[in-house]
Each structure stands twice: as C-alpha cells, then as structure tokens.
Design brief:
The protein has one domain: 3-Layer(aba) Sandwich (Rossmann fold), CATH 3.40.50.1460. The chain has 7 helices and 14 strands.
Length: 316
C-alpha cells in the first residue's frame, strides 16, 4: 500500500579520521562535502541527516541510526548511507558462512571497532531487509574491502610531498584473527586467502538476490584499497571527491551507470588503480542518482534479470 504522506529523504553520514591505529585524514571532509551536496542539491533537510563523526561513530550508534531511518521509511522515501573510513575483512562465522564464497566477510570499521565483534556486511543486510519495497536506498562505502597494493597517487610523482602522500583505507586484521582458521593461507602476492573460496570475488552487501532494492557504490573492488588523498586544498576519499565532481559536472542529474563510469574515468586519469563498483539490480543501472521515480513505476516485472556485481566499467 502506497503511503499518502509526503515522501521523506533521510541520510546517515559516517566519517572517521581518529582511529587509534592507522588514523585517516579525509573522512570527515567527505561527510561535510556530501552533507552540502544532499542539502543543497537533492532536497535533504538538516534535521533528517544524522552526522556521525569520529568518536560519535561507534558501532552501536551507526546501527541505531540506520535502523531508525529504515523503520521510519515508507514507499516513496529515499534513504542514503555514506561511510568514509577503514574497511577490512574477517573470517566468516557460523551465521555468515553460507553467504560468502571466499570464506571472508567484508566489514566497515567504526570508531570503536573490535576484531571479535566487527560490523559485518551481514549486519547491513539485516537492516536492508526491514526497508519496505519502493524505497530508494543507496549505500556509498568509501573504504577498502581487502589489502592488495595500490600503486597510484592523485599527484604526479615529481609533485608529491611526504606530507600529502595518499594513504589507503584498509585496516589489516591482526594475525591472531587470521590464524584462528586453518583454511587461511597466502597467495603468490602474499595476500591472505581462504582455501574454501570457490571464486575470487565477493559483494559487500551479500548477493543481489538477497540485497533486494539496495544500491551500493563501493570505493573499489574487494581485492583493492581506496585512497585517502590530498585533492585540491584538502584531504578527501578519492571516491567521494570524484562522486561529487561528476555530480557537479552532470548538473546533479546522472544515471548510476554513467556516474560510476565517469568516476572510474576520473580516477584512471589521475592514475589511481582503484575501481569503484556499482552493485544493484540491473534494472536500476539507468536510475538517476538519488532521484526517485514515481512509486507506480517500481512495480516488479516478472522475469526481471538480477545482475551479479558489475565488475568494472572500463578496460584498462
């Protein structure tokens, strides 16, 4: 049943620089930038945006705010979650092993992150499951999902300074966490991998068949890291900065597919190797970023093809 009330736009923006280990520099700026974009260009009201920065961005508060906007949502509403901070991977547990083909769960790292009680992709998926149909729910995760090397920079090598070198947004798990599972081994590039893996790729929000109407834009593939870089006059996540840049260039009206294509193009031109990904139903590729169609246009079509994670949008 379609709500007769006014459609609402709600958001949770999380940015963490002050990690006890491996602090970052551009995450708070990312959230301030996106707050400005949401309020000035997409009609979000200040009172409907939860801003969780540094010490306030605990696991409990992040999940509480996400549950709040999920439970309040009605058909026709728009929900937006932006996370800028560290990401990592942990061994699957008994509750999550059926959803991961590589034996690893992707996690985001809150301010108080705990390797023994991480915020897993499955925790986000549980929240997605309570969001009603016909609600536009978009996740942007400017973090790393695994730890292979990143050989790039926003600046050319001759202009780099030690002060402004980029850092990655990957938090390496402690050896004690990895060594708990005897199936974890090293590959030829000295990356930790699971012998239980049946394919090399995973998706942060589990599988699109379980993901429902959720849309994810990730900072990189799950075997890459996302950069925290000096861009312009301040630090930003490379994904977040390019996302805002493309939106501005397209006058804040661009399809999800074109948006991620253009973000990848900008990153490649700047000599970054991270490849942001779009993960959602294939029928959403031509939906515009944070522009909701009329609810009546979202009726489910029989035989609608569900895509797997769109691996990349350009050929290197």
């Amino acid at each position: 049943m379609i709500s007769q009330g006014v459609a609402m736009k709600r958001a949770v923006l999380v940015g963490i620089n002050k990690y006890a280990q491996a602090p970052l520099r551009g995450c708070v700026n990312d959230c301030l930038l996106m707050h400005k974009v949401l309020t000035e260009k997409f009609g979000f009201k200040n009172e409907n945006i939860y801003l969780l920065l540094d010490e306030d961005a605990t696991k409990a508060k992040i999940l509480k705010r996400l549950r709040t906007i999920a439970k309040k949502s009605q058909p026709g509403d728009t929900l937006y979650f932006h996370f800028s901070g560290h990401g990592s991977q942990v061994i699957v547990n008994d509750k999550t092993k059926s959803n991961e083909s590589d034996g690893l769960d992707e996690i985001i790292c809150p301010y108080d992150f705990d390797w023994n009680d991480p915020l897993r992709d499955n925790d986000l998926n549980k929240i997605i499951s309570i969001i009603p149909k016909n609600v536009l729910n978009l996740f942007v995760l400017d973090c790393c999902h695994s730890g292979t090397g990143l050989r790039n920079t926003w600046k050319s090598p001759d202009k780099m300074t030690t002060e402004h070198d980029w850092v990655n947004r990957f938090m390496p798990p402690p050896p004690s966490n990895l060594l708990k599972d005897s199936t974890i081994t090293l590959d030829n590039n000295l990356n930790f991998v699971s012998k239980k893996a049946i394919k090399p790729d995973t998706q942060f929000l589990v599988h699109t068949l379980d993901q429902g109407d959720a849309i994810l834009i990730s900072g990189c593939r799950d075997n890459q890291v996302s950069a925290d870089a000096w861009i312009g006059e301040r630090y930003h996540g490379a994904l977040t900065f390019c996302l805002a840049s493309v939106l501005q260039q397209k006058n804040y009206s661009v399809t999800l597919k074109e948006l991620v294509l253009e973000i990848n193009k900008q990153l490649k031109e700047a000599r970054f190797t991270q490849e942001p990904q779009l993960e959602c139903k294939q029928s959403y590729f031509n939906e515009k970023f944070l522009i909701k169609k009329k609810v009546t246009e979202y009726k489910k079509k029989r035989g609608c093809q569900i895509c797997n994670l769109l691996k990349t949008f350009f050929t290197q």
